[in-house]
Design a protein that fits this description.
- The structure holds two protein chains of two kinds.
- Chain A is an all-beta fold.
- Chain A has no helices and nine strands.
- In chain A, the strands form two sheets. In chain A, strands 5-6-7-9-8 form a five-stranded mixed beta barrel. In chain A, strands 1, 2, 3 and 4 form a four-stranded antiparallel sheet that branches.
- In chain A, strand 1 and strand 2 form a beta hairpin.
- Chain B contains twelve helices and twelve strands.
- In chain B, the strands form two sheets. In chain B, strands 3-2-4-7-1-8-12-11-10 form a nine-stranded mixed sheet, sandwiched between helices.
- Chain B starts with a strand and ends with a strand.
- The mean pLDDT of chain B is 96.
- The chains are: A mainly beta, B alpha/beta.
- Chains A and B meet through strand 3, strand 5, strand 6 and strand 7 of A and helix 4, helix 5, strand 5 and strand 9 of B.
Chain lengths: 127, 377
């Protein structure tokens, strides 16, 4: 896993966020205080697995520190709880995607580490 | 309140200069600004140096070489707006009566290629989420959707700025280009092609600010504002991983511009010339909207009208912008101000905006930081 505490893996993967008890705002990743109203210790929540595509592009040259394959998709998915999340997309052809199309959370391999284990991260795939 | 004027402006050209150090470039720009102001050792009481990649005590290294130390020297880092931040601090210190003369400069030698930024966590790099051009691409795509901007509009921003830059001997690219050449360059991150993105590079810029009674003929610093972001916008320059579905969160640029217009007692309709952040072609159009030059969604029509071209109602980036000059982070905001000081003095030759008396410069970048400066003459 590329970073502990970011998401849960398994049959029902989910992004791990927080919800503010005072203003109801939802944050990702988990926040120490509400990023909107500064109320401390928002409640941990799992975010919805399904959403709709809001923006997308593809990365055609490896950015600093990245060891995986190129090209790869990157985009913004809008979730029903009123939050927009940035993440990788499993589709790397921008022409194959459309605004508002249903998307679903996946956990995908990035590359193999020195011990031969797959390092995984979260991504969105066309549903 | 005490007025502040720009008594001197100096530049080291922007480009790539092998064998020339960050310090070397700073020395050239500072020397030129001091000479123009007619001042030297002991004549300024503080120095602020904008830099992001310069390292420890960048400002001290420049002033040590010139034998001018002893006063407070502060390095200021605020991403792309580092120079704007330095200028805000310097102007405010003079207005408050703390100093009567302050040196402000910025110097930078950017790494080549896609910029590695310590802003990102290691896991974001590993996951491929530290791609700056991808964030530019996402922002450009949304702007295209909401403002009716086509790829041809984006290409025409590049053509315009490169035409302006062809008349600027201090720019990195001094050659015009065409819509066909821009759209023929490789796609970096849809909808952005290579020629639509500015090059990180090297350069330095310097200004001498004085209490107005000490330099009454100087260009007046009417406002110098720095603001950070307020939360909610997923594609804000604060580069968060999530945001809300509220589309009306004011951009940091809008926050800074609103404060700057109020401080100067002026509005967008009063401007004669502007230098704005054109890190990519869409960013210039977005900046025009965020700075109030047109209604939200109106930037394509503004470009189509010819208003932002030299000879138009409000030329934008007469220097050629970052698309022609390149972007040395710590120097780029002050480079804009040097250009505008020269425009207001009528010194810009073939790229002169005739009769310019009110000018605005704008930078925005990671943090988020947005800086807006208004000058009058």
């Amino acid at each position: 896993m590329v970073r502990e505490g970011l998401f849960i893996d398994g049959d029902l993967p989910a992004l791990l966020g927080t919800r503010c008890g005072a203003c109801g705002s939802v944050h990702f990743p988990r926040a120490d205080a509400c990023t909107y109203c500064a109320t401390a210790d928002p409640e941990p929540v799992e975010l919805s697995r399904q959403g709709t595509l809001w923006a997308w592009t593809a990365v055609t040259a490896p950015p600093p520190g990245y060891q995986g394959e190129i090209p790869y998709g990157i985009g913004v998915v809008e979730l029903p709880e009123g939050v927009r999340v940035i993440g990788r997309l499993t589709e790397s052809d921008p022409g194959a995607l459309a605004e508002g199309q249903p998307m679903e959370l996946r956990i995908v391999p990035l590359h193999r580490d020195e011990d031969g284990n797959d390092v995984v991260t979260y991504a969105f795939a066309p549903a | 309140m005490t007025d502040v004027t720009v008594a001197g402006a100096g530049l080291h050209p922007f480009g790539r200069f092998d064998g020339v150090s960050t310090t070397d470039m700073g020395v050239v720009a500072v020397r030129a600004a001091l000479q123009e102001a007619g001042i030297g050792k002991g004549d300024f009481q503080a120095a602020f140096c904008g830099t992001a990649y310069g390292g420890v005590a960048t400002g001290h290294k420049v002033l040590s070489r010139l034998g001018m130390t002893g006063m407070p020297i502060l390095d200021v880092e605020a991403g792309c707006a580092s120079g704007g931040a330095a200028l805000m601090l310097a102007g405010a210190a003079i207005r408050a009566g703390q100093y009567d003369t302050v040196l402000v400069f910025g110097t930078e030698k950017m790494p080549k290629g896609i910029i590695r930024s310590s802003f990102f966590e290691p896991w974001q790099e590993e996951a491929g989420l530290a791609s700056t051009p991808a964030f530019f691409g996402l922002r450009a795509q949304r702007l295209c959707m909401t403002s009716g901007i086509t790829k041809e509009h984006l290409a025409r921003v590049v053509v315009k700025n490169r035409r302006h830059g062809a008349a600027n001997p201090d720019a990195m690219y001094q050659k015009e280009t065409t819509v066909e050449a821009v759209l023929g360059s490789r796609v970096v991150c849809e909808p952005l092609h290579l020629f639509m993105l500015c090059s990180p590079n090297e350069g330095a810029a310097a200004l001498v600010l004085r209490r107005a009674d000490l330099a009454p003929s100087g260009v007046k610093l009417a406002a110098a504002v720095l603001r950070s972001h307020i939360p909610g916008s997923v594609l804000s320059e604060s580069t968060p991983l999530a945001g809300s579905t509220d589309d009306d969160v004011p951009a940091p640029t809008t926050l800074a511009a609103t404060d700057a217009y109020e401080e100067a007692g002026l509005g967008p309709a009063d401007l004669h010339v502007m230098e704005c952040q054109d890190t990519d072609a869409a960013r210039e159009l977005g900046s025009c909207e965020e700075l109030g030059l047109c209604e939200p969604g109106g930037s394509a029509a503004l470009l189509d009208s010819g208003a932002t071209t030299l000879g138009g109602r409000l030329p934008v980036n007469p220097s050629g912008g970052l698309l022609s000059k390149g972007e040395p982070l710590g120097a780029s905001a002050l480079g804009q101000v040097v250009e505008l000081v020269r425009q207001l003095r009528g010194e810009c030759g073939p790229r002169q905006v005739e009769g310019a008396r009110v000018a605005l410069s704008h930078t925005v970048g990671r943090g988020a930081n947005a800086g807006v400066v208004i000058l009058t003459h």
